[in-house]
Write a structure and sequence with these properties.
The protein has three helices and six strands, in the order H-E-E-H-H-E-E-E-E. The chain has a single domain, classed as Jelly Rolls (Sandwich), CATH 2.60.120.460. With about 130 residues, it is of the alpha+beta class. The strands form two sheets. A four-stranded antiparallel beta sheet has the order 4-3-1-6, with no helix packed on it. A two-stranded antiparallel ribbon has the order 2-5. A hairpin with a 2-residue loop joins strand 3 and strand 4.
Amino acid sequence: MVTREVVDALPELSKFKVGLAHVHLMHTSASLTLNENASPDVPLDLADALDGLVPDGRVPGVGGAPYRHIDEGPDDMSAHVKGSLMGFSLTIPIADGRLCLGQWQGIYLNEHRNYGGPRSLTVTLTGAT
């Protein structure tokens, strides 16, 4: 979950009375989503469900989905599919200097590669101060 990192990187957020925060992930083999922030099982179950829906590419002697794009390994194309399904950006309302998230909501950066590298977000704020 990256909610705290996003908020901490936006000191100007506190000046907005009303507005929108647009959070964009600058990668195609990971994704962003809002989900429950209380249980550590949620991201694990989400990853398991996505792995069931979108298996990695073929591994000799093991099997897998028949992808053509496996340039960076068997998890390459499956990561791109998962990212496209989940999405690369979120738009979150702002009110009284805070992100309007539900009591149990948090921002998740979902890594879809087995050994993903560093990830970067761009956040833009619009609204009235």
